[in-house]
Amino acid sequence: DMAPGDATVHSALVIHGAPANRRDRPRLSFTVTYFDAASLYTGAPYGQTDDLGLKVNEPFDHPLFPVVPTS
Questions:
Q1: Rg value, the chain, Cα
Q2: How far apart are CA 25 and CA 32, in angstroms?
Q3: Three-state SS for 9?
Q4: How far apart are CA 35 and CA 67, in angstroms?
Q5: 27-61 pLDDT, tens per residue?
Q6: Terminal C-alpha separation, the chain
């Protein structure tokens, strides 16, 4: 079991989840996803990319997807 303030780091390919939130307030979470800068937007529906004006088969050209230097 995780305690408040704990963190987990894993590949997006790992099946993961959490038990139901039984508290009287929302559970907070923070997600960081890294992917290759050459990745192209597929147009698949996704809450983090819907309505951003991204173009299908184009790079993720949007301020929410900055290129992070590797060295």
A1: 16
A2: 23
A3: coil
A4: 10
A5: 888 888 888 989 999 999 998 899 999 999 999 99
A6: 36
| Token representation of residue 36 | 């290759």
Residue of 19, 34, 42 lying closest to 66 (CA atoms): 34
Instruction: Kindly state the tokens that stand for 59.
Output: 């790079």
- Residue 40 to residue 49: CA distance in whole angstroms: 12
Dist. CA 55–CA 41, nearest whole Å: 7
Verdict on whether the full-model pTM lies above 0.85: no
Q: Cα 69 to chain center, whole Å? A: 19
Residue 60: CB atoms within 10 Å: 17
